[in-house]
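Please decode residue identities from the backbone states below.
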């Protein structure tokens, strides 16, 4: 379509007009949007409500153009110098997942979904004919990724605590004996933050033949790595690959996913291609890796551990106060997710609560302090008495 035949769009408001718009006016519009999203004006209990504390330190990186034309470990003449930063981030996350750089490698993806796709692609290489066994409590992204990859998905029942039922997995794999099994375990289910027992699931699936276990730890990996209350969940416990996330708990201004795969799961192809060159995308941004490196360096391993402990303490406090408010709260051990009875609509709207049917959910990250818990519980008590804000 030529400029002469292009639709005659208005030059005012948000549409992109024929003539350039005044930069000052557009800046004012973006500032208006920022104020409208200001967390102080309307609380958001959890990600992404805690970005303000880190944006200033990360802002200079936004002036850089960082194009990664290949994988994390592939030398290239177009190297921007950011590869070592990405390797440092991967080494950190590999250690959290119970592996050394010699045991597992991967890359920083643009999102947890991209990292999940990469993990499933790598798992399928070792078991190309197997079905994928997914808990009914898994994130919908897992089922969506399997559909995109044309993989046969088998839903497995969940136990009352929202973890995958090993007995049902054993039954489902026995029905498809001999084909092998690709089991997707979850570390941090969307609603209850439940964590599947990787060792138990791997043992339960052996009736099918060879087993590969991928862990979707996008929601709960960072918390699980700093907790002694959780079941076996990581590469150290028998998983073959894992997806983790760097943006939610750390307060990143952009999504970031971590894909880690055991090197033994990635034998060379007949073409001699190694894992970095089998990424889901080709040219990719290196900004996420730089942002993660900057944020993690500013905290240090001790700072991340302290932040997780503080969030877990707040989750425990929320259970006590919500119980006192008569909201019937529940929490998986070590999780930052707390569910409770869905309150009146005005409370849901005021606090922008995530709701799933008759349940509401909060995540004790960022602005979810003891004070915020007290204020939320005061509104819950008021709603029970029929008050309206």
């Amino acid at each position: 379509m030529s400029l002469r035949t292009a639709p005659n769009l208005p030059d005012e408001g948000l549409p992109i007009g024929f003539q350039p718009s005044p930069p000052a006016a557009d800046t004012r519009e973006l500032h208006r949007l920022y104020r409208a999203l200001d967390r102080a004006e309307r609380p958001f209990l959890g990600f992404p409500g805690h970005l303000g504390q880190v944006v200033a330190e990360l802002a200079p990186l936004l002036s850089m153009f960082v194009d990664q034309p290949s994988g994390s470990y592939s030398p290239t003449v177009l190297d921007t110098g950011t590869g070592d930063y990405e390797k440092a981030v991967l080494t950190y996350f590999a250690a959290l997942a119970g592996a050394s750089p010699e045991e597992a490698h991967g890359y920083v993806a643009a999102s947890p979904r991209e990292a999940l796709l990469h993990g499933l692609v790598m798992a399928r290489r070792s078991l190309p004919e197997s079905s994928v066994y997914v808990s009914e409590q898994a994130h919908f992204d897992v089922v969506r990724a399997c559909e995109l990859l044309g993989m046969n998905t088998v839903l497995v029942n969940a136990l009352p605590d929202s973890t995958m039922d090993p007995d049902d997995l054993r039954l489902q794999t026995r029905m498809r004996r001999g084909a092998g099994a690709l089991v997707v375990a979850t570390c941090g289910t969307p609603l209850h933050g439940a964590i599947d027992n990787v060792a138990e699931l791997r043992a339960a699936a052996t009736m099918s033949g060879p087993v590969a276990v991928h862990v979707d730890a996008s929601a709960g990996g960072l918390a699980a790595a700093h907790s002694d209350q959780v079941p076996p969940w990581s590469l150290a416990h028998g998983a073959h690959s894992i997806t983790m996330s760097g943006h939610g708990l750390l307060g990143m201004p952009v999504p970031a996913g971590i894909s880690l795969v055991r090197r033994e799961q990635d034998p060379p192809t007949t073409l001699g291609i190694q894992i970095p060159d089998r990424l889901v995308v080709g040219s990719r941004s290196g900004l996420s890796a730089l942002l993660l490196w900057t944020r993690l360096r500013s905290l240090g391993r001790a700072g991340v551990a302290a932040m997780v402990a503080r969030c877990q303490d707040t989750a425990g406090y929320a259970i006590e106060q919500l119980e006192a408010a008569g909201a019937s709260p529940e929490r998986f051990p070590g999780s930052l997710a707390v569910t409770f009875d869905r309150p009146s609509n005005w409370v849901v709207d005021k606090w922008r609560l995530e709701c799933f049917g008759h349940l509401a959910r909060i995540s004790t990250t960022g602005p979810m302090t003891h004070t915020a818990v007290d204020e939320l519980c005061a509104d819950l008590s008021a709603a029970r008495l029929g008050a309206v804000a």
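Observation: The chain has two domains: 60-297, 301-381.
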